[in-house]
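Field reference: sequence -> structure
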Amino acid sequence: MQQQQIIGDIAFVAGVFFAKGEIPEADRPKIKTRIFDWATQFEEAYDADILGDDYEDLVDAYAEFRARGKDAEAERLIAMMRRLRSNRDLRMAA
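Structure field:
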């Protein structure tokens, strides 16, 4: 997945929550500066060969967790994606 697409998807989800008034205006600058970092983290953990059909659901959930400040949930999602990749790599090496 290209990082530009991930950045766009995360920014879109954050924008939806801003528009609905579900994220305080005061959080907007922080989120805008963090989107690139979040996209990088997601890109590093996401593996299209394993999770390809689930991209939209995963990026939407991840973006929502980050935008709402639910960092523990976002980190659990990243850890799950990394575990799946690691398990696949171990099976391939065997």
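Note: The helical segments are 3-19, 28-45, 48-51, 55-67, 71-93.
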